Amino acid sequence: MGNLSNRIERRRDARQWFETTLGGYVLAREQAYFDETVSDIFGFNALQLGLPQYDLLRASRIPQRLNLDVHSPARLITDFNHLPIASQSVDLALMPHVLEFSATPHQILREVERVLMPEGHVIITGFNPLSWWGVGHLIKRRCGDYPWRGHFIGLPRVKDWLALLGLEVVAGRLSCYVPPLQSAQWLERLQFMEAAGDRWWPLGGGVYFLLAKKRVHSMRLIMPSWKERLAAQGRIAPAAQKELTQRNSQKESELV
Fold this sequence. Notes:
The chain is 41% helix and 18% strand. It is an alpha/beta fold. The radius of gyration is 26 Å and the shape is globular.
């Protein structure tokens, strides 16, 4: 019960932080990315893990949408390590800042891979340690406030985890190049860093987005040999056609 209370309290801290000036700056860019990306993904079931106060799937065309959290308005309390969802039943899963605030991030990814349909998608957001936000994390991580107390996970490591689980990264982006300042005035003054960051410092965004797809091994299509195709068209030499007929007769006798 104590662990659940602690997780709920941490989630409340996240709600409070996203309502601040700095949190709103991050949320606006994340919501814009989700709106743009989920609108092109189709299916029957979509899942959002965490941040229940924000409908990050609002632009999705998928009819069935579910939000799971430690403490959500729908009272859907769950452990992300063991999702109460059938295997291969979800077409799209959103993970907004889930991994860096979990003690078992790889297990959560494994669970998400389990519930994803073949060719299903997962979208992950995380704070980038190789950025101004990473510097802020080093300075403030002992304060216990969100998001600084989280364990910021580098982009290459997350990509390695996805590859091990058969999830192929098909798109990605970084954003929030402005240093994590609480002043609305300075955030406005430094907006030029957003465009400059994409061009001059592409890996230095404070937040990264990853879109990955669950790949499955496709069956190898066995096509007729060129001799069989030509024989069907009547364009093969008589000798070669006689050889092909004898070979087919031999195969049929072996099967009897």
